[in-house]
Structures are given as structure tokens and as C-alpha cells.
């Protein structure tokens, strides 16, 4: 089976495109091809209209792969100096350190950094050369909430200045916070692409939320109820037939209050899109 099958992605200036999908879907493979780290078996890959191997194309891109290693005896500031020396107009070191919360760590050897601190340094280096586009593969893995939001702010600032980001992430709230567009990959194919609300709107799933002491007997299969969530007296029915579900709830005669029907979450939409693409039953 091909790792990727006819993927066509277009990135626009000043936007974040989030590449989402299950493990093994082909997200990291796509980034490797764009960076010239892997060669396609057939077809072609273009980056800024050039081959990813072209030095001119590579100079326009910054990247953070999933796994990054540093010489343990080099200090954080020295690593930034080393990388920045490859670019004609790098971001000033003090600015880069501050942007990613690394200033207190500038004199520390990388061998003494925590996993999260190393990750922040790896992401910071992707922006060192003022690239036109940045590819981030699971950038906030291992980061705490504060560090994650600091990185989000850095990405927002970069995009506001006209930069472009291609992002893979398992944190769906990250995609919701950063991305203007989403592409869903499964089994090496793009199975959906569009704005966040468009992706949610492609599935019929809805969340029927209400308050009740007990869940009345409902025919889950007939009503397309995929999941039931309970938290005390709050009940949520994730269903493909929201109107019929509400009607059945009313007809049951069971007391309930605070009824609310909302769109599916991004996670629920992605799961439904992937199942549909595989020809599985919802």
C-alpha cells in the first residue's frame, strides 16, 4: 500500500493549514516529502514551484520534525547561534529566546534541558531564519499548558506577519486555536479539506445535551446514537439524527430540562469522516 496516494495540498500566505488524521495516515510522510527527506515513488513534489532539493526552496522553509537531537555540551544560545549563522537575516537571538520563553535557559547546556524545554528550542529554531513557511510536526508534544500557549502566540505572530504554517497535531484544540483550514488524511489520501466549520458541517452528527436524573429508554440504533456521555445529571447524546432523538426524548415522557442541540466536536467530525472514507458504518 502506498504511504501517500495523490495528495494535492496548496498553502496560502498568512495561514495555518492543519494536517489531521489517525496514526499512520501519512501526515509525517507528507512533511518528509515536502522537505526532501524522502523521495516519491512516482509523481512529483514541488515547494515554492521548485524541487524540495533545490537550495533556494530549502532556504525559504523552517521545520521541526517529531524527533530532534542537540549536542549535549552546547548551550541553548550557542545552538541558536549555530543555526542562525546559516541565514543571511536571522531573527536576533534575544528576540527568538524571548518569543519562546528560552531566555532563562540561554546559558544552559542542552543536555540539562527537560524534554519540554528541548521541544521549545526545536520549535524556536524553525523560525530562526525568517522563513516564508514553517512545517511543524507535532510541535507541542511534551509541553505543559503554559508552554503550549506561548508557542501558539508565537505562531499567531508569525502568521500575522504573512508567514505560512503547515501543522500536524494530535491536540485537536491546537488545530482549532491555530488553523484557518484543515486537511484530513487517512490511508495516504486527503479525505476532506476545508475551513474548520466546513469540516464540522460535513457530518450530520449533533450533540443533544440535557439534564435528567435518568436516561430514558431510547432505541440507540434507530436514532443513530453513537455515544452517550454522562456527568452527574448532565447527559449528552452524540447522534446522527438529532431531530428524531429530541422527538423520542419528548415522547418518552421522562422529565428533563436545559435541552441544547449543538454541532459535533472536531474530534467527532474527524472520526465520522474517516469511517465514511473507509466505507465503515457510522
TrEMBL record:
Stretches of the chain forming a coiled coil according to its record: none
**InterPro entries hit by this protein:** AAA+_ATPase, ABC_transporter-like_ATP-bd, ABC_transporter-like_CS, ABC_transporter_ATP-binding, P-loop_NTPase
**Keywords associated with the record:** ATP-binding, Nucleotide-binding, Transport
* GO terms assigned for molecular function: ATP binding; ATP hydrolysis activity
Q: Which domain of life is it from?
A: Bacteria
**Residue ranges of every copy of the ABC transporter domain listed in the record:** 1-212
Q: Name one Pfam family in it.
A: ABC_tran
Question: Does the record's keyword annotation contain Zinc?
Answer: no
Against PANTHER family, the record matches this protein to: ABC TRANSPORTER ATP-BINDING PROTEIN
Protein's name in the database: ABC transporter ATP-binding protein
Native source species: Tistrella mobilis
